Amino acid sequence: MMNNQHKYELILYWSEKDDSFLVEIPELPGCMADGKTYSEAVENAHVVIDEWIETARSLNRTIPSPKGRLLYA
After folding, report:
1. Which residues constitute the domain of residue 21?
2. Is residue 39 in a domain?
3. Is 25 within the bounds of a domain?
4. What digits encode the pLDDT tens for the residues 20-54?
5. pTM value?
6. Cα 6 from chain centroid?
7. pLDDT at 67
8. N or C: which end of the chain has fewer CB within 10 A?
9. Backbone angles phi, psi at 50, to 5 degrees
10. Is residue 63 part of a domain?
11. 14 vs 1, more confident
């Protein structure tokens, strides 16, 4: 079940190499998505977040709580 209410930070950027928008979800290790349009990339990110969480639950792993905006040094 897709949950568009995720509060995880999304880092979205254009990749010339991939000819796509790429999305990283830094709070969920290894969680990334892409799309040919900005909207498609965000939509795909929500699907991948759901799948990441579902997999973590099935493996009894901790699911990080969304922290909102991350600060970088």
Report:
1. 11-58
2. yes
3. yes
4. 999 999 999 999 999 999 999 999 999 999 999 99
5. 0.83
6. 9
7. 84
8. C
9. -60, -45
10. no
11. 14
Q: Which amino acid is at 3?
A: N
The identity of residue 27, as a single letter, is: E
Question: Which of 36, 41, 40 has the alpha carbon at shortest distance from 11?
Answer: 41
Tell me what the pLDDT averaged over the chain comes to.
90
Is 5 inside a domain boundary? no
* Six-digit token string for 9: 């930070």
- HEC profile for the chain? CCCCCCCCCCEEEEECCCCEEEEECCCCCCCEEEECCHHHHHHHHHHHHHHHHHHHHHCCCCCCCCCCCCCCC
Contacts of 31 (CB under 8 A, 6+ apart): 24, 25, 48, 49, 52
Our count of domains for the chain comes to 1
Between the alpha carbon of residue 65 and those of residues 2, 6, 18, 46, 53, the distances in Å are 17, 10, 30, 15, 11
